[in-house]
C-alpha cells in the first residue's frame, strides 16, 4: 500500500466516526468533553456552530452518530451522544451574548425563505449575520415546520423550540406567518436576490384499499399529528390501529395514548428487522405497552352501518435470503382486528403544486426537484432547495446541513461568484502530551455500560399531552457517560523516521491494532495483521518504510480505543496523540475569504 | 512505566487456545521498565509462547534474581507461581523448587549481570545438573539498573553512552553452554518475535536445561551508535542460522519442507521441532561443529541466532539422580524419610 496521506483532512476526519457520520459534522468528542468539565455553555456553542438546534436535536435527532460510534464496535452500546447534547442545552447559562448578530448596516441583498422549518431557519442563521435581509414565509400560524407539527410535545416541548428558533428570528428576520406561497413565479416577481425553498415533504402517503373513503375515522399520520399539535383534534377512539412502523408511526401511537386511546396496536407488514423506526423509538413505544404486530398486511377497512368497526389483514410469510433480502411473501390467512380509528403512517411525499413547471426547475418521477447535491441550487439560477423538499424525507440534521450548504451558495451567488468554487475542509493537529505519562484528556478506558435515560413515571406521563417523557441526564450521569467516549478525535499520529522497531507499541496495544510487517497490497496486508482486520469500512494507516528494516507500521483504525499507551510506551516519540480539529467552512468563512479558524473555545 | 493499566478491552476476533484462554489472559501487571526496553518484547514473546502451548497458569513457575530482567516475571502470567531470589541465585532456587516438584514447568528469567557476573557459578552448575527448565537470559551488555556500566557480556570495542570502549573479553552464554553440555541452546532477538516465540516454545517443552540467550537492547543506556547491542547494530549484523517450528503432539506436520534443509526432531512431550536450516552446512547436533561455527562467525562480527544445539536424548536432573516419578512435594511424609530405625542403620554404616 502507499503510505497513508494524513495531510488530506478526510483521513483523520473519518477516524472520528461520530463526526464523520453526522451530516453536519458536529465535533462530538470535543463538546462532550466540555460537558464533563461542566462547561455546558461552551458545549452548547460548539454544537450550535454546526447543528444550530442543540436543544431540539438533543431530544429528537435521528442520531446517525450513534450507530457508527466506535464504542459500539468494542462493546454492545455506543456512547449516548444525543442525550449528552441535551445536557449541554439543559444546563447552559444565558448564551444570548455569544450568539451571532446581524450587522447594523445590511448588505442590501434580499433573500426569501419559503417555510419556517429547520432548513430555512439554518439558512437564516448563517446569512443574517452577514447583513442579508431575510424574509421568511410560513403557511402555518407558527414556526418550526415539522419539528412543531409532527413531533409530539411529550418528546419536544414547545418552549425548547421557541427558544432556539427565537435565537435566529431575533437577528432581524422578517417573519410572515399564515402566508402560504401559492406561486413561485409570483414570488420571483418580487425581485429577491435569491430564493430558498424549505417546505419539507408535507404530503402523507395514502392507502388505497377498499373502505378507505367510507369513514371519517381514517387519518393520514402527519396531517393528524399536525391537527393534534394545533389542538384541532383533541380526542381519538379507545381502540386505535396505526398502519406502518416508522418513526411517525411511533409518534402517532404514543400520541393516541395521550388523547383517549387505551388499546393501540401498530401494524407492521414485515418482520421486526425490517422496521423503519429507530430502535430507541420502538423501545419507548413498547415501554408504554404499545403492541406491535408483525407480518400483517392491510387488506380492507371494515365498515358496518357507515361506521368503521375494524380492518381485515392478510397474515404474511416471508423468505429471507442469505443476504438478508426479503421476498414479496405469501398470504397464509386472514384476520379481522376491531378498532375505532386508524392512523396511516406509511411515509410521506414531496408536493409542489405551487411551483410552476415552466420556470426552469425540473422535477423527477417522484415529484422531487432536481437539485445539485453540493450547491443545493435547482435548475433555475438563484432558486435553492434544502431539507426534505430537496431530496425527499430525511431528517432534521440533514436539513440543517442542507441549510449550511445553501447559505454558502446563496452568499457566493449574491456576490456574483462561482458557487461551485467552495472553501475546502481543513484540519488542525495539536499534540496533547502534558508530561511523561500525562495527556490533556482522560485516556483511561472506562468499562462503565451506557447510562439509562430516566423516564417520567408511566402513570404520570399520560395525564397531559405535553408532559415530557425523558427527564434528561443528571450532571453525574453525563460525566460518567462522557467517560465512555473513546476520544477518537485524539489521533494516533506516527512519524516513521523516529521508529526503532522496538515493538513496545505493538506489545502494549490492548486491541492488537498495530503490526510491523512487510508492505503489500491492502487485501494481503489485512490477512497479515496482529488481529483480524475484517472491517473494510475502516482504513489501514500505513507508514513509509521504517529506517532499520524497511518494513512498515500498519495500524488498523477499526477498534483503536485511543488509550495512548502506544505513545506512552514509545521511547522515541514516533507515536504521538494529537487532537484533530476538522475545520468545516460555513457561509461566514466564505464571506471573509479566509479559511475557517479553530473555534474560540479550545477543543479539549 | 505508564500511569494507566492496560485497558481491559480486547479485539473480539482474537483466538483462544486449547484451554479456552486468550493471550491476554496470560498477561501480568503493566511493565515499569523504560519505554522501549527489549525486555518488554521478551515478555510479550513469553506470553505468546505459553498461550500457544496452552500452559495451565497454575502449572508454571517463574523464577528470577535481581536486575531489570528479573523484574519481568511480574509482567506475565499473574496466576502462576513465582520466586524472586537473591542476586544471581535464581538457578539454585529453581534447582531446589524443581527437586521438590518436578511436575511444574519452570521458566527462569535472568540477565547478563545476574547470570554472567554475580551468578555465573550458579548458571554453570544448573547446566551441569541438567535442571529441567527454560533459562532465559535477557542480554543487553550493560548494567541498566545502575546506569549503564559494561556487563560481562559487553563486546570488545563496544562503547558506553559516554564513549568509552570496553576492552575485556565478553562471556558468551551460548558458547559457554555448549562447552558445558547444555541440551537445548538457542539465541534470539527481542525485536524478532517471529523467530523468538518458537524458540521459547521449544525451550519450554524441552526436557532438560534449555538456554535461550536473547539480545534485548537497553533503550536507555545501550542503544547508541558504537554499541554492539543496540537495535540498529543487532538488526544490521544478525543472521538466522536456523528457524524452528514447534508442532504440538496433537497436530500433524502439514507443511512440506524441502529435503536436506529441514530436520524434524521428536520431543519428549510428543511434539516435534521442525528445524529449518538457513545455512545448509550447519549441524545443530554436533557440539564441536556448533562451537566452531559460532566462534568463526562471532569473530567476523555476526550475531548468530536460531536453535544452535539440541540433544533430546540426554537425561535431566531427576533421571540422573534416580528420583521417583511422583513429585517429592506430593509424597506422604513417611515416604519421604526412612524412619528413625533406618536412619540409625545408615549412620552406623559410617561409624
Protein architecture, described:
The complex is a heterodimer of chains A (604) and B (351). Chain A has 604 residues and is an alpha/beta fold. Chain A has three domains: 12-97 and 443-483, Fumarate Reductase Iron-sulfur Protein, Chain B, domain 2; 100-202 and 350-414, FAD/NAD(P)-binding domain (3-Layer(bba) Sandwich), CATH 3.50.50.60; 204-348, 3-Layer(bba) Sandwich (FAD/NAD(P)-binding domain), CATH 3.50.50. Chain A is built from 23 helices and 23 strands. The longest helix of chain A has 19 residues, at 396-414. Chain A is globular and about 90 Å long. The model of chain A is unreliable at 600-604 (pLDDT under 50). Chain B is α/β, with parallel strands linked by helices and 351 residues long. Helices cover 30% and strands 19% of the residues of chain B. In chain B, the strands form three sheets. Chain B has an eight-stranded mixed sheet with strand order 2-1-3-4-8-7-13-9, with helices on both faces. Chain B has a three-stranded antiparallel sheet with strand order 10-12-11. In chain B, strands 5-6 form a two-stranded antiparallel sheet. In chain B, β1, α2 and β2 (81-84) form a beta-alpha-beta unit. In chain B, α1 (38-53) packs across α7 (193-205) and α3 (90-100) packs parallel to α5 (120-129). The mean pLDDT of chain B is 93. Chain A binds chain B through residues 74-75, 437-438, 443-445, 447, 500-504, 506-508, 510-513, 531-532, 534, 548-549, 559, 561, 563, 565, 568-572, and chain B through 1-4, 6-11, 13-14, 24, 30, 34-38, 40-41, 43-44, 190-191, 193, 217, 219, 223, 231-232, 235.
